[in-house]
Each structure stands twice: as structure tokens, then as C-alpha cells.
């Protein structure tokens, strides 16, 4: 007979467990299956019930145990279950026992009555069926009233906030049949178009302050206000609502209760006072005292430094050394990097282990924990790059085992109880940041609201009506609600951000593909930083823009759905370029997670040692989570304890228990520890049928013979049997465990020769050392292998190949005598003879440079066309100063994620620079390094080689009396941009602001990105005519630092004719306050190249330069002198 348990969700009523246990032990029922009753199987395994649920594939239903829905919402959502019960009653096929959670009892009879009905006692069965029909009829009447009756409940809910979290809350609340409207205040572009019950509040003008929310609550006659962000809670919105809106439920903690998030110092003291595990800590209000404390610590005692107050999620610093820790204290307390949040500083010991986000519903009396989630904070794949608000998450997180879930829930319950005792009852959601340390779960911090993106990944798993839960939390009746989550379902959320986030990023891009993404099965696209324009086009309005959640029966299925949806999405810039960034490795760790091994053993456990060592070394992608023995003094238990407190190590006595009931209790310990696979190491018990079915395909044993030979025996008897049989070899076999003793499929065998005169003892001594390695080899087959490609590491070979094909024409356009500028080889070739140089008389010149922080402006403005010219200019201008002709150029482009169009624009600029300087672009390197660069970032380096005849190398013959000619610059060129960017920021401007120094440019960015002037073609004729004795490229260090590099000792440059400062430099001088000296050693100030010419050749040189289009200045002369080699005879004006 088969018992089917239906609709209990997270409930595990003792009367139901006792009924099932009695039905099985009395042999009235042989198999048990559970439908939407996910907590029942594990609860049945535990004492005193010790019963397996192994009938999930059974077809018949001889006993149906049905939990009456406790709300109309649940009944309507799962009406099919009620219909299944009705069908069983009407067909008289099964005994139906209906459990009523409101009175904690069965309707129509006791446990004894139900057991009697299973023995075909018709009156008992009929009474139970009649009571069941009556109970269902009452629910039908309630449902009918809610669907179409005059007393239909249709509540209005306000959700405060505008992010992805609030969109997810609104969607979940709208599923409730008793909710009529969900109004988001202020909401975002997604909630504006979600439709159905969801809309954005009218007339709030983007506000969510207390006054706005109260006015809206009154205006729409709201029944409940749900507060999303932490700031309104800390500002006391819950308290502010009490007087003007006394009948409105507000889901969230009071200002006093929200101190759990508002003050880390308060929380740490609270945790310590109530014995809730947390890191060792000290709090300080004085920076000197905090620094003295750090200095007193051991050098290896690593600390974490936290601003106590709210710091927008950024107030936690994780230094690695004592000096860094002191610097962190100064940053928080002295420099006030986080404002008043750093008035109090918490210094706590650094903890190790994976983190988990654990959210709990709280009603001021108790707490119910949701499935744990894990999020990804770093911006880039492989957890590289800057910290963000969260780039993705997944749930339920396997790192939190069932037993750990209980521990964390107990921490939350204790927190709620102790907060109530101090007169600040906690109502709302409690977000516990947990570190899963080697010593068990430890509390990192509390947040007083739903997390983001954890909300978007946890709420889709919720099965219970969220509005029902929130109502119970507000009313203090959470224990009456069955908070349950979907069985066998995983969720994965991937955040799509604006390129550049969390640093500078663009807004206003059109978002495409949302409709197509939402149409994918199991996918929901939640909006965060979005808005609607006047044409109802959805546009980006923040850093984290969308959160794409996929559901599946496995994490792989959930992730496949999420990433398939993302393939339809894009953020389209003004030039049709893609400006969307997302991580490609969300939940990758859980896809390749370690196999969790439980061990059953009765002896020393010698064969376990190689497994332990293989797990520790990484040779086995697994971890041991439990060691269970039927022998109190078995040495294998010591091996389990040595693995640490997080490994469950239990002695389970067998006295008075049947084989099946004993195996159930052992299985309960294994399941609670999170074991997925079981190995039997010297386990001296025969296993029950139920155990073998429960762990089918997930349990292996070692037998000391080459099975199928000598099956069934134990220890020395097996070895003696092999010798007596005259076998030439024996060994050990790892096999799957089935009901047939030693009869399961063979996984691994290892053999040894049986020598003449062998004894059972000597053969055992040869075979036993093989057992551990055999286990390791067998387990490797079950751990599986994951192939990690270059693309998995964030590097796209295809994108690199595509880039090469795009830039080939640009490179080809730079051909010149000596090279054909073709790409694709291992190195670029240049023929000196073809370029007209005799190798015996020729000296090669090399120059290398970059573009510096000017790149930041290109990246911020998404204008990449000119920085390639800058790169070439900085190299070839240096090169011609030695008197040479540029011959060829190579570039190096490094980025975190190769954006082909962006890179192609840069390389086209490089090619243009090569054309302007007459050198061939013969090769380059594109390096994609996700761990080195943030989204949207790249860096450049250039390498140029030129040639000069030996006797024409400059400087040559520079002396007093020579004339200095200055050639005009095109602007700032490529030096001094760290200061430039600082000045722009100081003046409160952006790169999109109108240009304050030159109205000919549309924006500041356009002006600053004017490419560096290339002087090659104007100066080469002078070099070939030998009109120049020296040159100086005015780059970093300005005129004062660069001109002396071309002057001999005893010669001084007197500057008498410096031109008027161009407008950009006048503006820089004015806003910076720099004096002339600092200006001259920072910027080129309008002179980009200085030529040293003999006085009798000045006129000819000027004529050639003016024909080339150059603006030439009579800058000064060289005189004899000592000391400073550049003397200004005039001021800058």
C-alpha cells in the first residue's frame, strides 16, 4: 500500500508524522510519497519516527493525507490538489485523512481511526470521507466569495522604492487574489508598464519621503505599505505612519528596530550580549584609540574595518596588512570618506569561508528563514573588478545545509525575541549576512530590508501568498502561516548593468529585447535603473539596470533560461553601439560544486584517509560532510572530528531498532549535513531495502575481493576464501550498494597477486592499502568533470578574430616602402634596404609611450576615434627628436572584455596616426584580461621604430647662439590629464558640459579629445636638409623638463617669445591657481615641439615649416650659462 502526503509545504505536524510512522511500522503502508510537502521526508527520517519516504514513483494511492489550505489564496492556487482528494473519495479508492492546521488535528477521526480504516473498516473510512467533503465544501464557499461575491477582498498595497527589489516585490504581491492594486512609489520604467494590478504612483514626482508616502496612502486608501529601501526605515517611516494612518499595516521595522542596520556598533554589541556567533570586535569613536588598538595586534591578525552607520553599502574595508588597516581607520574616521557614518568605527577579526544572504520574515515574536542565496558583488567575471551592489545571485544556495539553515534560523528567532524584550519588536524582513566559517555560521551583519538582487532570486521561489505573509508579520501571527517554497526548483538572477558601472557610465540608452526576453519560459525581467521617455521608450536610468531571473529544475536550467533571455537584450547607445555589461559566470561555482560525501563506518576507517587527503589536495572535487558510526568507540569517528566542527560526526546506537528504522535515523544525520553521496568504509551492517532505495545510485561500498567472487563474506574470511579457492589474484572492489549484498554494479577494481604460502592476514595486508585509492578513483567518476574554456575565463577568441578582420584594411592603408603592413603573422617584417637605408651607416631608434589618463575621457564619452592618433603621436614625436624617420609602428591594446567596435575605432585612429607620420602599422597585440580591467576600460601602449644615418643623430652641435623655434600644439595633447580631470570635477562640470574656454567645441569632452599633433611630415624636410641641430618634444614635464634634455652643459635657453596661452591653458591656469613655473612643468602651454636651429638657417627653416602649415614662434635663444637650463624672460599671459 502507498501513502501520499499532499500540501503540507514546510509544515511537519507531529500527528501527521506519527500517522505515517505507525502506518509503515504496522505494515499497513509500504511506501510513502510526498507532493508539495517538502519538509515531511526529512522530518520522517528523524527520531522518533525513523521512516523512509521511498514511494515517489508509486502509481497507486491507498492512503491520502491532505493538509487543508489555511487561506483562500492557497486554496485557489492549488485547487487541483483538492480535486484529487475529491476524486479519491468519490471513487472509494483510498482512505482520505484531512489535517486541519488551525486546530492541529485530523477531521473526522483520530490516528487510530485512520489506521483502522486502512484495515477495511468501512464505517471509519466513510466517516473520514464525509468529514473531508465537508471541510472542502467550506473552502469552496470561501473561494466563491473571493472570486465573485459582494464581500470580495481587493486590497491596495503601496510599495515604497524604485529598484529591482521593489519591482520583484510588486510582482509577487500582485499574485495574491486578495490584492486589487499594487502602487509603486515612485517605481521605475518596469513597474510603469508591468500592467495588471501594478502601476506607479501619480503625482509623487519621484519622491519616497515620509510625507509623500503618507499623503499617497490617504489618497489611495491603501491597506498596506511595504517599504523596500533601508533609508526610509532608518528615517522612521513606520513610526511616522502610526498616527495619520493607524489602520494601515506597514511592513518594515520601526526606527528603533532598524538600528540593527543603521548602527553596526549597536548590532555587534547586541550579538555579543545575546551569544549569537559573530567575529571578535572593538568599536571606537576616537581615531587615535582605534589606531593604537590596531598597532597592538599581531601582524598576522587580519582585521576588517567598518563605518558603523549607513554608507550605501560601501562602508566596509578589507585591508590585508596592519599598515593598510591603519589607513582604513584613517579613511573612515579622519578623512570622513563615508561622512558621519564613520563617526563610530567597528574593527573586527577577518573571517574566512563562503558568504550567504539569509532573509527571514519576522512578526515581532518569531522568524521564518527563506532559502539562502549567494550573490556576486564584483563587477567582472571570476569575482574580479570593483565591488558593486550585486551583479547576480542564485538560490537556494547549497552552501547552507539543512542543519546550517536551522542554526541560522535560530539566530534570527533569537534576535527577534531579544529585540522584543528590549521594547523594540522587529517586524519586517531581517537580512542576515552570514559567513559559513570552518567553525559554523557566523553573523557578519544585519540589514533591515530585502536584499538586491537577492529579492529577485528568492521571491520567485515563494509558493505562499506574499501578501498573506506580510499581513501575518504585521499582525504578529506568522506562526499560523505555512511559509513554503517551490520544490525541486532553482533560481538564478543575472544583473545587466550600464557599461562602466560601478564607475562612470552613460544613461539614456534605449533598452531593446525586453518583450522577447520575458517570453522565454521561466524568465522574468525585473527593472531597476529604468525610466520611460515621452514616447514610452524604456531607457537606462542607472548603473544596475535590469535583473533577469530564470527558474529551472536545476541551476543549469535556471542559468540557461537567464542567459537565453539576456541574448535578446541590449542597451543601445547614440552610435548604435552596445553599452550593456553583465557577468557570464553567475552561479558557475554551484554548477561545479564539490560532491558532498557522507561516511558510514564501524572500524578504524583506514581506507578513508586517502579520500580525506584527496579532498584536501583538490585531487578529488569533493568534501566530507558527515561521518556516522554504529560503534561508539570506532576510530573512524576520530577521523571525522579531526575534520572540524562543521563535519557532522555522530554515533547512532542501534539497540531496539529495526534495520529500516536504524537506517532512517542514520540517513537523517546524513541529509541534515547535506550529504549527496554515501560511502561505506568498514561498515559492519547489512542495509535495509528502504536505505538502498533512498540512496539508490548514490552509495558505494568496498569489498575485499574481486567481485562477484567471494561475495557476502567479511574481513579475513573473504581473503581465506580466495586462498582456499586457489585464486591467482585477489584485490578489492568498489561497487554500488543495492538490496542484494555485494551484488551492485562494479565501479572500480584493484588487484594483487596471491603468492605461494599466502595467508589470510598477509593477503589482507596487501589488499587493504588498495581500498582508499580505489575509493578515490571511484568517487572521481561521480564528481564529474567540467571543461572550462577560454571563453569561460572571460576571453573571446572569436571577438579577437573578428577585430583582426575589421582592422586589416586600416592597417593595410599604412603601407610604405619596406613593409606591406599585413596582419596575421607572428611578427611584422621591415626591409631597411627597401626604405633606402644602408645597414652599415644606419642606426635604429625605438620609442614607446601610452596615452595616459586621457583614455578615461574617451571611455567616459564613448568617443574612441582619436586616442589612437595620440598613441602614435607620443611615440613618433619622440622618435624624430633623435633625427630619425619613423619606419613602423606596433600597438598593444589591453581590455577586460573585448568590444569589437570600440577596439576597431581605436585601431583605426592608430592607422590614421601612422598615415600622418608615414610609418607602417605592421602588427600589434590585443589582450583580453577580465581580471585586470573593469567593464568599459582599456589601456594602450605604442612602440615605434625609426632609422637615422649615423652622422645625423641629434642633438648635434648645439651651442650658444642657436635660435629656438616653437611649433604650436593642437591643445593639451596627452599629458597632464590627471590634473585636467580633477579640475573639471572641481568646477562641477562633466565632459558633456558646454566647453567654457572655446565655443567652437560642443562639449568639454570634444575639446579635450583633440588629438596630439604629429610633427613628422613638417620636420622631416628640415632633417633631410640638415637644418636642425636639436629638437625637443614638449610632453610630461613641460618646457622646463624637456628642453634641457637636448642641451649640453654650459648652455642655457632664454625664453623671450613664448606665445600667448591658448584659451584652454588660460582656463586651466585660472581654475587651478598654478603659477607660471608649475604651468610650464605641467602642460605644453601651446608649444608642442621646440626646434634648435643655427641662426643662419632660421629663415629657410621657417619657410619650409610655414609651407607645411605650421605656426612658428620665435621662442628664444641659447646662451652660455650655468644652473637652470631654461630661464623665462617673460611671464605667461
Proportion of beta-strand residues: 15-25%
Question: In what order do the strands lie side by side in the largest sheet?
Answer: 33-32-31-34-35-36-37
Helix content: 25-40%
What Rg is obtained from the alpha carbons, in whole angstroms? 38 Å
Mean pLDDT: 91
Question: Tell me, what's the shape?
Answer: globular
First and last CA, distance: 101 Å
Q: How large is the count of helical segments?
A: 38
Secondary-structure class: alpha/beta
The residue ranges in which pLDDT falls below 50 over 5 or more consecutive positions are 785-795
Beta strands, count: 47
The description of the largest β-sheet is: 7 strands, mixed
Would you give an account of this structure?
It is a single chain. Helices cover 34% and strands 23% of the residues. The longest helix is centred in the first third of the chain and has 27 residues, at 122-148. The chain is an alpha/beta fold and 1133 residues long. Strand 34 (677-681), helix 25 (689-694) and strand 35 form a beta-alpha-beta unit. The chain is built from 38 helices and 47 strands. It is globular. Mean pLDDT is 91; it is low at 785-795. The strands form 11 sheets. Strands 33-32-31-34-35-36-37 form a 7-stranded mixed beta sheet, with helices on both faces. Strands 17, 20, 23, 25, 28 and 30 form a 6-stranded antiparallel beta sheet that branches.
Give a short overview.
The chain is α/β, with parallel strands linked by helices. Helices cover 34% and strands 23% of the residues.
